Amino acid sequence: GENVEQHPSTLSVQEGDSAVIKCTYSDSASNYFPWYKQELGKRPQLIIDIRSNVGEKKDQRIAVTLNKTAKHFSLHITETQPEDSAVYFCAAPERSGSARQLTFGSGTQLTVLP
Amino acid sequence: KAGVTQTPRYLIKTRGQQVTLSCSPISGHRSVSWYQQTPGQGLQFLFEYFSETQRNKGNFPGRFSGRQFSNSRSEMNVSTLELGDSALYLCASRPTGRGEKLFFGSGTQLSVL
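Predict the joint structure of the above. Result:
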């Protein structure tokens, strides 16, 4: 099955700096890579996703890059703000029979220091 | 549109008891997945239901079971609770069984004493 590894597990940055979180996946057939943000005590929410037919996608201060050859994808947050502090999860789909489920990385606790 | 609703929000049980958690998906969503979240372990897939049928199951013991009703609402049951079952249990729905985007509920925080 799909194996998703996420690094680093914790990340502290100064407000205004950039943050980068990286994930690797094992199934070369995977074609969809979402990122979820989970604030303390709240539900995980999809913040950005990318499909394998593109190498990069941006949405304001966040971007995701994908390297299919190396089987890794990264989340980039620029001009970080205190409200960016949260746990971020990457995921990749795993096919099982007729169904597809998401396999998640172990999460990155991002802390933006004022 | 209302989001994914999970009840109860918090639950305290003792070892050996059983527990039932409930999830109401977004209206029109037919797929419901359950995940267990523990500190440092990320989100571990439990199972997925689609049109009242279990389509997928993660690597959890048989004490964990679930079902889905005709209105797509789902329940998850854990029997003979163990201390290690303490976790946040998240339910997620998606429109069909093929799309990948998951919409999560706020979860049920289960504490086993």
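The mean pLDDT of chain B is 92.
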